[in-house]
Structure formats: structure tokens, C-alpha cells
Design a protein that fits this description.
Number of helices of chain A: 9
Shape of chain A: globular
InterPro entries (chains A, B): Glutathione-S-Trfase_C-like (IPR010987), Glutathione-S-Trfase_C_sf (IPR036282), Glutathione_S-Trfase (IPR040079), Glutathione_S-Trfase_N (IPR004045), GST_C (IPR004046), Thioredoxin-like_sf (IPR036249)
Mean pLDDT of chain A: 95
Number of strands of chain A: 4
Domain GST C-terminal (chains A, B): 89-220
Strand order of the largest sheet of chain A: 2-1-3-4
Keywords (chains A, B): Transferase
Pfam family, one (chains A, B): GST_C
Distance between the termini of chain A: 36 Å
Oligomer: homodimer
Strand content of chain A: 5-15%
CATH architecture of the largest domain in chain A: Up-down Bundle
Order of helices and strands of chain A: EHEHEEHHHHHHH
CATH topology of the largest domain in chain A: Glutathione S-transferase Yfyf (Class Pi), Chain A, domain 2
Protein name (chains A, B): Glutathione S-transferase
């Protein structure tokens, strides 16, 4: 059966779950913490030792292990036509890919490693308290990214244009993970809040918002579309 | 005319130059240092303020600005059939994309930011001497990556399989930039040295190896295919 190695609060894993649900592709979810891969199944599927990894049985037969998230997205688009994640035109595809990479890579490096990874991964790895200097740096970078998203959404209905694309999915995946730790100043960025409310209502996002980490409850507004 | 915003020793820029030459697509090269974008042309073409950015006039008409490197690669593959950078099968494409992301992103984060960026960018930005602790961390990570490449090349003629792909181009781009500062212990990794000698001989790589940075000459073996 189609299987996704993931972590519940890992933004890239969330993006792939969201994308597969939009394409109508069910998958068995198996949680894999890279720092606790005792049996080596994660390293065997992805020598980089990171989630997400998609283990798929493509329509053309066989079994295939795909990673990282950017390669999974291209694979899904090529293997399954339903629920396209990318627009049809060259310019549209380039813009969706630019912003998908922006949120999967740039946002990750500038915001999530200093916030989510400090708050959540350190706790899961039992590595002590978060570093408040890093959290502050992440919060500052987050404000800049939210400002950029608000600027885009002033001109467009979705981040990369007039249709929802992988860019929205990647951004929503990041922000949903940060929202779990109540780190997103939604009230300061109304266009982003409105956009996120639209994404929260999508059936593809509902199961992701139902995930809970033991001992770390999300804020009350977390899975409420009218937040 | 097709234009590439680049920096001569930036690995991702080198990968795109190499890829375009393999596809037979000439481009005007314009050097853009992200930290000296006084007229804002780089930020206008890529809000992330990073090179490479491809400004293309696609066969379908109009003008398009594409970034980052991963999106440029997908764009080139979709817009131009000649000189394919990805294999034809799903499994082949996934493997080439996995290793392309490995060298463009993981290798960059684990090796190049600590070595090339310390040695070259700091010099260009006049930010003082490299930090030797960081250079040592980068050298250790480089040995691990070269070991992984050697392991792959023990089983395959090229990094991602039996044909040259974007994975080889991305890896060669990183290693060529590190080789410019004489940082690659080729003699310890004979399969990687042999593979790199094959890439060095390709006409697509020759112009890249002719670039020189003022006041920073490369080692004598740098552009010699029989090194």
C-alpha cells in the first residue's frame, strides 16, 4: 500500500499529506523520527535520513521510494493527473515552483529551524529548553515572510495566482505547524488570515489539523476554520 | 536575449550554466552579487534576492523570470526537449531529482556554506578572514559526501544511473567551485575523481572552468581534465 514516512509537525511532511489528499491519493502514514531510526528503514528509503519519504506503487508497476518533498511533488504531478498541484502554463508553473521552494526551503531555513525545531524537535529529542534568542530571530523572520505573503495576496486570490497550487499548500503546511505552537500573529496580517481560513476549510487539510502531540496541546483556535 | 543572473563561483549558478549548455541553449551571463543589488534588478527578478535567475523568452512567447535552480531545471526540461536532464522513467526521474536536491541543497547547507561561502563570499564582501572552525566542519562533511558519491559510483556509471543527469551536473557544479579553492581531496576518492574527469571533458563544462576571480587564482590542476 502507498505509504508516507512522516512526522506530524514536520512542515514538508504536512505539505505532501495535503498534496496527496488534494489529488485523492490515500496513503498509510508511518511516523519516523530521523534521530531514532534504529531499524534503519528510514535511511534505507532515503539515505538523507529525512522525512517525508513516499513509498508508492505507481500505475506503471513496481515500487518506488521518493524524496525529498520537492521530488515527491514532481513525481505526484507526473504520475497522477487528478487534482493538479501546478498550473498549465510555463509562467504559472515557474511561479508556483518558486513559491513552493520559498516556503519549503527558505521559510524553513529562516523561520522554522529557529522556532518549530527549537520548540518541538528539542522537546521530542529531550535536548532541553528552547533558545530564546533563536525564537526571537525566527519570530522576526516570520513577520517578514507574512508581510510578503500579504503583499502577494493583495494582488492575487492565491499565492501563485488565481488558482490554488502547491505554493499555497507549502505555505499552509509551514504556517499550520507554527500555529500548533501558537506562534503566528494572524491578527497583524488580515489577508494571510483570510487566505489561511480558506485553506483550513478544505477537506484535504482537516485530517492534518486533527493530529495531536502528546503533552503539547495546540491553542483553541488551531483547527477552527472561523478563528 | 536569454539572460542568466549568476555569480561565477556560485554552485547553483554553475549547475544552471552547465545544464543550459548541455541542452544547447546559449545565454548572456550577467553577474549579480545579492549583497550589492543597488539598482534592485536582482530583487525585481527574484524577490528572494538570490542567484541564479533565468530570464528567458520561451518558445511560446513572452518573457519569464525563473528561480531558484530547482525551478529553472524543471522549466528547462519542460520548455526544451534537447539534451534531457532527467531520465524517461518515474524511478529514474525520482532518483535524479533526489540527488540533484542532495547536491544543490543538502551539500550546500552542510559543506559549501562553511567552506566556499567562508572563503570566497567573505572575501568578496570584505568581511574579514574565514573562520577555521567552520572550514574544518565543512571539510569533515565534504569527506562524508565524497564517500557517498564514491559508493554510488561503485554501482553506477553516473550518480543517478547509467546516463548522465542533472544529479551529475549539480554535484559537479558544487565540486568545481570547491576545487577552485583547492578544497577537494580527490586522491582519497578515486571513483569520484574518475567521474569528475569525465565531466571536466564535456564541452558544456569548459567555459565554466575558464572563469577566474580577480586576486584568487585556482590551483594548477583546476581546469586540466587529466588532473
Amino acid at each position: 500500500m502507498r505509504t508516507l514516512f512522516h512526522m506530524p509537525l514536520d512542515p514538508a511532511s504536512r505539505a505532501i499529506r495535503f498534496a496527496m489528499a488534494e489529488k485523492g491519493l490515500p496513503a498509510q502514514l508511518v511516523e519516523k523520527r530521523p534521530w531514532a531510526d534504529e531499524d534503519g528503514t528510514l535511511a534505507a528509503a532515503n539515505p538523507a535520513g529525512a522525512v517525508p519519504v513516499l513509498i508508492d506503487e505507481p500505475p506503471t508497476g513496481g515500487e518506488i521510494a521518493v524524496s525529498p518533498a520537492s521530488a515527491i511533488i514532481e513525481y505526484l504531478e507526473e504520475a497522477y493527473e487528478s487534482g493538479p498541484l501546478l498550473p498549465a502554463t510555463s509562467a504559472g508553473r515557474a511561479e508556483a515552483r518558486r513559491l513552493s521552494a520559498w516556503f519549503l526551503d527558505k521559510f524553513e531555513a529562516e523561520v522554522s529551524v529557529f522556532t518549530l525545531r527549537e520548540r518541538v524537535d528539542k522537546r521530542l529529542m529531550r535536548r532541553g529548553q528552547p533558545d530564546y534568542e533563536l525564537l526571537k530571530a525566527g519570530a522576526d523572520a516570520l513577520a517578514w515572510h507574512l508581510d510578503y505573503a500579504a503583499w502577494l495576496l493583495d494582488q492575487r486570490h492565491w499565492l501563485a495566482g488565481e488558482k490554488m497550487t502547491i505554493a499555497d499548500i507549502a505555505a499552509a503546511a509551514q504556517l499550520s505547524a507554527l500555529d500548533y505552537i501558537d506562534f503566528v500573529p494572524w491578527e497583524k496580517f488580515p489577508p494571510v488570515k483570510d487566505w489561511y481560513a480558506r485553506l483550513k476549510s478544505r477537506p484535504a487539510m482537516r485530517p492534518i489539523l486533527r493530529d495531536r502531540i502528546d503533552g503539547l496541546p495546540p491553542p483553541a483556535h488551531y483547527d477552527n476554520p472561523d478563528f
